[in-house]
Amino acid sequence: MTLLVLQIESEAAHRDALLDAVGARTLPWRLQVAGSVRQAREMLASASPDAILVSHRLADGTAFDLLPDFAGRPSILCVAPGEEPAAARALHEGFSDYLIKDAGLSYLEVLPEQVAAALRHADVLRRLRETTERYEVALAGADAGLWDWRFHSGGSTVNERWWTMLGYRPGEFDLQGNGWLTLVHPDDRAGVQAAMDFAGKPDTPRQYEIEFRMRHKEGHWIWIQSRGKVVEQGPEGQPLRLAGTHVDVTERRRAETERRLAQMALQKTSQLLEHKSQMLEDMLNSISQGISLVDAGNKLLAYNPRYLELLELPEPLVATLPTVEKIVQFQTERGDFGQGFDLIEQQARDYVASQYLANGAGLNVPDLYLRKTRAGRVIEVRTRMSLTGNRVRTFTDVTSYLETQSALRESEARFRSLTELMTDWYWELDAQGQFMRSEASGTAQRGVLFRQTLGKAAQEAVGQTVRATQEQWQEWDARIASRREFRDFVFPVESADTPGLRYFSMSGLPVFDEQGVFSGYRGTGRDITAQKLAEAEIERLAFYDVLCGLPNRRLLMNRLAQALAASARSGQHGALLFIDLDNFKDLNDTLGHDMGDTLLGQVAKRLVGCVRESDTVARFGGDEFVVMLEDLNAGLDEAVGQVEAAARKILQALNRPYDLDGREHHSTPSIGITVFNNHEQSVDELIKRADVAMYQAKAAGRNTLRFFDPQMQSAVADRSALEADLRQGLLRGELRLYYQPVVDEQMRVIGAEALVRWQHPLRGMVSPAQFIPMAEQSGLILPLGQWVLQTACRQLAAWARSPQTAGIALSVNVSARQFRQPDFVAQVLAVLAQSGASAQRLTLELTESLLLSDVKDVIAKMNDLKAHGIGFALDDFGTGYSSLAYLKRLPLDQLKIDQSFVGDVLTNANDAAIARTILALAHSLDLGVVAEGVETEGQRAFLLRNGCKAFQGYLFGKPQPVADFTLAHLATNETKP
Ligand code: C2E
Ligand code: CA
After folding, report:
1. Is the terminal CB of the chain with fewer CB neighbours within 10 Å at N or C?
2. Can you tell me the mean pLDDT for 738-754?
């Protein structure tokens, strides 16, 4: 044992005396002396003394500085008299004891004992700590949850297992109060409370044991066995603390439940068994068959009452459960089996006889035989081996069954001979509509017909639903579901064996059983294909032209009447084209009718190729054809344009040379046209009009077309004259390009739109509205557009050369047809290169009609041009078909609000809303907007208010020749810096 003395004593007397006192050889410890805090620390670390004796003050500090280094070892502080406060503090801080160095040195006498006491005390403390630790370890490892509950504070202490049993981490929720009780199963809660209350009362056993359910954190219930006991009580015996254990007994409870269930099941089974055998007996007693059970030794084991009844056996004989031989003997002697057993079916005679003679050991028991009773009834005897080696024998009275069967056989035979003679076949359906039976056993031909109808050979079809098209079956099923008689239901059937449809006519009668319940159908079928074909042929002859296979006059009149009604409903126009071949008679006369017919056939084919499938091409007889077009535009002008285009196509097609047996032949038609809408004219009147117009075409020199309506005719004539003129005008350089300014919010000119004009030598200035649509139809738009683009780009390059005009951007209108040219991109780039214009200043205005074609291609071209710096505007926005989805995909820079909206923004709320919406839309898509057709200050103000930043219209300038435009531009931009 080592005792460390930390001491610096000023008084040598004390120091030496103390060292003497504790260092006496009689004492059981080794002494170490340190003089300073530093030295003491080293010693405490290396020598690890068992107790420490320390002076209050050390040379370099106080004893308190060293306290942490003591690490709980017993320590005694020495203080001088009068320093008792320091002593008190020492005890408080953790010193084990103190002593006061009295002048008479009497303290030294008790010092050894004091040290020994301190050591003993430290030892007790250590053991206590160890025990506590062991206890804690034990608790932590226990499979039981432990709890400790204080009555007044309601505070609880529990071990880790208590928590984990419930799936919680220790301390996961607050245990203060009765919170944990909420985890107890609601049904068990009262019991738990009562148990605790009970234990808490004086005069009770003060302990309890109870099992209850608690909710595991994962939601399921676990069974807890809880034992509790009062472990601390107050002076009046009132309980202060309750402590106890929780054990998880879920497994045990489950095992118990299972055992109980198994027991119950067992009980139930034996009850069932009893019930079942009772039932079996009841059943045996009540069935109409006689039953007997015989063991391997041929001894009767059991029988039912019907057995006695049927075989007319006396109960006393059978009740003794004799052998079968005994019974047979009785029966034979009574004469049951007749003379020589002849009432028994041949095959079983020997067997029964052997029973009688009791020598049947070697004979096999027949499974089934019939025998007659003396009264003439027939009994069927059936023998079955049971699993246990016994034999079960049943006796059934089959007299009436046999009678019915033979009656049935007779009727079947009658029926069969009937179907043999019928050309129809017979069929039956069950209540579910399945073919159950069919009779077509007559001739081979009828067999084939049947197979085609049902898709299967007659025998195979029984019990199967036949395959046919959906609609056929739906209609058929509806017939069957009606449960009414039907006649001549025509069944078209696709047949694999022969080409084309076959038709079968079916008639049927519903069948109801005695209770009136529907049980299916019976009926007959007949092949009516030949009859149908004849009908179709008759129709063909009646409605179609034999030579060309086209509808004839009669069918056309029918369809025309229908078309008139449809047009009245839809408001769309239709047209009749009366086509007559020019000089057809000559061909007939010179080359003969056969050649004439060949030509007509070829003409018919070409006509059909020129129109849509929904249109009608009819042959009226001779060399006259009539084409009926339907679903044309609702607007008359557009409809006329459509008809004219179709008629020109026909003219062109019929003008191509024909091959008549290797000989090239030329033929032309004259076409008369009338347009119809609604019921304005009758069918006959329309035909007459087209006919009249056709004669006008003939009069006009043949190989041409004429409209019945003079106005339509003149419009058509004007258009073609204009077209011819424009072709010339293009060549003669009669086109002009005008420029209309585009201004910003301050009305400064920022650009221009190039608009084409036609300076016609006779008509004067022609508006593009008149000739652009025609140019688009005729294809003239391509050279025209090319000219506009070249002129515009040259102008851009010219403006670029002067600083005042260098900033002007130019928009050029591009038609859909122009844009759709495969080499459009290359054309534009070539024009830019030739003119030297900057692509950044050029914007192409496209219309929404472009989006009706291949949008992918449009986007690809736009992207291509855009990559070179060219901008794009969508013209006439709001009037067309643009879907937002397309709009987002197009690489556009600008929308142009159509002038029709701008014109009415101040007077029409709807137009105002549209204009506003377009502006908002453009803003959200990050597109610029130019408002077109701004004519008044009011319109400009409205647009400006709604965020429009660019304007075009007469308010700022009309389209004008370039010189005027440039002058005006310079003037405005100078006054508005
Ligand atoms: P657009 O592209 O919508 O051109 C605007 C039309 O509005 C022009 O008619 C213009 O003169 C007219 N306009 C401008 N400001 C006002 C105004 O304040 N009030 C009124 N009432 N009208 C105004 P224009 O020049 O007759 O052109 C008609 C259409 O012809 C153009 O409509 C465009 O679609 C087409 N077009 C014109 N030039 C060309 C061209 O070079 N190529 C193609 N493909 N089409 C062209
Ligand atoms: Ca335009």
Report:
1. C
2. 95
Q: Say if residue 751's pLDDT is above 60.
A: yes
**What mean pLDDT comes out for the span 186-203?**
81
For 39, phi and psi rounded to 5 degrees?
-60, -40
pLDDT at 959 over 60: yes
What size, in residues, is the chain? Answer: 977
Quote the ligand 1 centre to 755 CA distance (angstroms).
6
By mean pLDDT, which of 627-641, 702-716, 827-841 is the weakest? 702-716
Helix (H) or strand (E) run with residue 860 in it: helix 855-867
Contacts of 87 (CB under 8 A, 6+ apart): 77, 79, 98, 100
Helix (H) or strand (E) run with residue 91 in it: helix 84-93
Contact yes or no for 902/934 (Cβ under 8 A): yes
CB atoms within 10 A of CB 157: 13
756 CA to centre of ligand 1 in angstroms: 8
Residues with CB under 6 Å of ligand 1 are: 740, 755-756, 767-769, 772, 785, 788, 813-815, 875-876, 899, 932-935, 952-954, 959
SS3 readout for 2-69: EEEEECCCCCHHHHHHHHHHHHCCCCCCEEEEECCHHHHHHHHHHCCCCEEEEECEECCEEHHHHHHH
C-alpha distances in angstroms, 396 versus 299, 306, 323, 407, 409?
A: 21, 10, 21, 20, 22
Instruction: For the chain, state the CA radius of gyration.
Output: 60
Q: What is the pLDDT of residues 628-672, one digit of tens each?
A: 999 998 888 889 989 999 999 999 999 999 999 888 899 999 999
Instruction: Tell me the CA–centroid distance for residue 781 and ligand 2, in Å.
Output: 15
Separation CA 645–CA 651 (nearest Å): 10
DSSP state of 852: G
> Which are the contacts of 534, defined by CB distance < 8 A and separation ≥ 6?
none
Is 739 in contact with 752 (CB distance < 8 Å)? yes
Cβ 496 vs Cβ 470: under 8 Å = no
Angle at 138 between CA 133 and CA 141, to 5 degrees: 125
pLDDT for the residue 469: 64
Residue that has been written with the tokens 């209850």 in this structure: 212
Please check the confidence at residue 450 and state whether its pLDDT lies above 50: no
**229-277 confidence digits (pLDDT tens):** 888 877 777 778 888 888 888 988 888 888 898 888 888 888 888 888 8
- Point out the ligand 1 atom lying closest to the alpha carbon of residue 767: 26
Give 288-294 contacts, CB < 8 A, sequence gap 24+. Answer: 288/396, 288/397, 289/394, 289/395, 289/396, 290/394, 290/395, 290/396, 291/392, 291/393, 291/394, 291/395, 292/392, 292/393, 292/395, 293/386, 293/390, 293/391, 293/392, 293/393, 294/324, 294/390, 294/391, 294/393
- Residue of 753, 766, 772 to test ligand 1 pocket, by largest number of atoms within 8 Å of CB: 772
Cα separation, 609 vs 625, whole angstroms: 14
pLDDT (mean) for 35-40: 82
Nearest to 873, CA basis, from 857, 896, 855, 901: 896
Segment holding 143, helix H or strand E: none
Among candidate residues 628, 602, 616, the one with its CA nearest the CA of residue 551: 616
386 falls in which pLDDT band (50, 70, 90)? confident
Q: Is pTM, for the whole model, over 0.85?
A: no
Determine the distance from the C-alpha atom of residue 854 to the mean position of all C-alpha atoms in its chain, rounded to a whole number. Answer: 31
Beta strands in 720-791 (DSSP E): 735-743, 749-760, 764-766
Q: Nearest residue CA, atom 33 of ligand 1?
A: 813
Q: Is the pLDDT of residue 38 over 60?
A: yes
Half-sphere exposure of 866 (CA within 13 A, CB side): 13
Angle among Cα 798, 802, 805 to the nearest 5 degrees reads 85
Q: CB within 8 A of 247, min separation 6: which ones? A: 143, 144, 145, 224, 225, 226
Which amino acid type is present at position 201? Answer: K
Which residues does residue 385 pair with via DSSP β-bridges, in sequence order?
Answer: 391
